[in-house]
């Protein structure tokens, strides 16, 4: 599976580091000596789930399996605890941290506690009151939890806000933080469209827009870069034999060197000025 020795070593090194940061309750800290972080734990679960889903790491690996299992247990417990504490009539799943934990967890499986699923389903009654990023995350959760009709309805509404110009499509957003900027949210949307409406031309146009942004400016920060790379690889997954990806000036074939992306997704930083592009052969 991991054909490149350097990629294998870097992947194992990153996994060992993540494992060393995991607490007994399954939560993962930013650094050694710090308390576990909900956001860090969710981010790791999302990345590991995605990497396994697209065959970049072995889901049966003991370190991967243990880290992911314990982290999803932590997320399930945190979501359940907060829901139990919430006042009746107050659906706290609309809070960013709660919704993102559920979203990240959905990359692993759809076995969230029933109370969480019920709260998410209830949130769809007023989904138009949510901001665009929360709509995308909620629509993704509905799609992955066998509520495709709801997901399609939400996605059609979101797509109506797309600005389409020739071969590109994008949402006109005003976000200034890393979690609500153009790259971050539209990468999320591109992944959802790839799953739910793969034949929609706007799915391809969104990817074209992401690539155009990379040609003209940086993707902005580590989180946005990682998510954009995820979307590009997801979009090219059907034709991996003819796709190449260039990371830090070095070109790799997606079908051969994909594991080297683990380094980018888990340990890159904006300061390293790492770039990524996909070239269709």
Question: How is this fold's topology laid out?
Answer:
Blueprint (H helix, E strand, L loop, with lengths): L4 H16 L7 E2 L6 E2 H16 L8 H24 L10 H10 L8 H10 L8 H13 L3 H12 L2 E4 L2 E4 L10 H15 L4 H16 L5 H15 L6 E5 L2 E4 H4 L3 H7 L8 E5 L1
Antiparallel strand pairs: 1-2, 3-4, 5-6, 5-7
Helix pairs in contact: 1-12, 2-3, 2-4, 3-4, 4-6, 6-7, 6-8, 8-9, 8-10, 9-10
What report would you give on this structure?
- It contains 12 helices and 7 strands.
- The chain has 281 residues and is mostly helical.
- α2 (38-53) crosses α3, α6 (132-144) packs parallel to α8 and α9 crosses α10 (222-236).
- Mean pLDDT is 81; it is low at 239-243 and 252-281.
User: Strand-and-helix sequence, N→C?
Assistant: HEEHHHHHHEEHHHEEHHE
User: How many strand units?
Assistant: 7
Oligomer: single chain
**Helix and strand composition category:** mainly alpha
- The low-confidence parts are 239-243, 252-281
Summarize the structure in short.
By secondary structure, the chain is mainly alpha-helical.
List the main descriptive attributes of the protein structure presented here:
single chain; 281 residues; mainly alpha; two-stranded antiparallel sheet; 12 helices; 7 strands; 9% strand
């Amino acid at each position: 599976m991991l054909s490149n020795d350097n990629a294998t070593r870097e992947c194992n090194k990153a996994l060992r580091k993540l494992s060393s940061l995991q607490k007994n309750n399954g939560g993962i800290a930013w650094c050694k000596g710090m308390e576990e972080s909900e956001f860090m734990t969710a981010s790791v679960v999302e990345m590991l789930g995605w990497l396994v889903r697209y065959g970049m790491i072995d889901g049966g690996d003991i370190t991967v399996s243990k880290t992911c299992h314990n982290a999803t247990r932590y997320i399930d417990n945190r979501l359940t605890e907060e829901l139990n504490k919430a006042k009746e009539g107050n659906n706290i799943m609309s809070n960013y941290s709660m919704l993102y934990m559920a979203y990240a967890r959905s990359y692993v499986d759809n076995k969230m506690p029933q109370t969480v699923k019920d709260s998410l389903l209830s949130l769809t009654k007023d989904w138009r009151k949510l901001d665009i990023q929360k709509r995308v995350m909620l629509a993704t959760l509905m799609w992955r939890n066998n509520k495709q009709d709801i997901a399609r309805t939400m996605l059609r509404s979101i797509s109506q806000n797309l600005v389409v110009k020739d071969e590109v499509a994008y949402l006109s957003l005003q976000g200034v933080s890393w979690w609500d900027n153009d790259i971050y949210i539209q990468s999320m949307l591109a992944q959802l469209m790839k799953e739910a409406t793969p034949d929609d031309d706007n799915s391809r146009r969104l990817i074209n827009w992401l690539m155009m942004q990379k040609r003209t400016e940086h993707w902005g920060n580590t989180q946005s870069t990682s998510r954009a790379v995820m979307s590009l690889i997801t979009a090219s997954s059907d034709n991996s034999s003819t796709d190449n990806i260039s990371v830090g000036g070095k070109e790799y074939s997606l079908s051969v060197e994909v594991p080297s992306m683990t380094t980018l997704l888990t340990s890159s930083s904006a300061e390293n000025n790492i770039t990524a592009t996909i070239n269709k052969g």
